Amino acid sequence: MSDASALRDRCWRRQLDAAIEFCRSHAPHLLPIYAGVRDEKISFVTVLQNAGAFAPKFDWPTVVLFGDDRDAALGLTAFHRKSVEAVLDKIGAAAVISSAPAVALYAAAAAGAAMLRQHVLIVETRERFEVDWTNLIGKRRPSLPLLVSRVGTERYPAMTGEPIASRALFQVVESAEMPQGLEVRLGSD
User: Fold this and answer.
1) Which residue intervals of 47-90 are DSSP H helices?
2) Contacts of 25 (CB under 8 A, 6+ apart)
3) Which residues are CB-contacts of 169 (< 8 A; sequence separation ≥ 6)?
């Protein structure tokens, strides 16, 4: 490795260390992703609402985060449709999160990218648009592993017979009955 390359790598690592320290107090749910970028050679791309067309590079296993939960969720219309579909065609798993951002959910995405060397999509949204995002993913990629994290303890529509496009569904709900506040249900019950 050349001196310039080694210097660039040390600078990059210091920047990631600083991002990790920031996350400890401001965004702990992102810690596993930034640690994966630093230690496991994965990439992390964030796409915010109304960003226009986008095309993430998928040189390394990548966690792509669609941030549809800023001040207000805007749903699918806030994201360039062809760009979203291009990302959906490349990923190996997805998560739609309308609940609080639990560290375990983001750690699962980082682990999928790092250990399985797959691209993973996280959609952060609000409950109002959760089914829209889930249906889009399920229609485009019906057998894609999909984790849904939602507020409340009601059964997800796919588990009660209501139509939903995805067949491979895991559900995580916030629950006061669980010690960690999370419950995972397999969609086939």
Assistant:
1) 81-90
2) none
3) 134, 138, 146, 148, 156, 158, 159, 187
- Give 57-83 pLDDT, tens digit per residue: 899 999 999 999 878 899 999 999 999
Q: Which two tokens stand for residue 65?
A: 């985060």
What order do you get walking across the sheet with 62-67 strand by strand?
43-48, 62-67, 120-124, 93-97, 146-150, 169-174, 182-186
Q: Give me the phi and psi of 172, to 5 degrees please.
A: -120, 125
Check whether 160 has a pLDDT greater than 90: no
Amino acid occupying residue 106: Y
Asked whether the beta carbons of 164 and 138 are under 8 A apart, the reply is: yes
pLDDT at 27 over 70: yes
pLDDT digits (tens, 9 = 90+) for 163-188: 444 444 455 544 444 434 444 443 33
φ, ψ at 93 (rounded to 5°): -165, 160
Calpha distance 137→11 (Å, rounded): 37
Question: In angstroms, rounded to a whole number, what is the distance separating the alpha carbons of residues 145 and 138?
Answer: 9
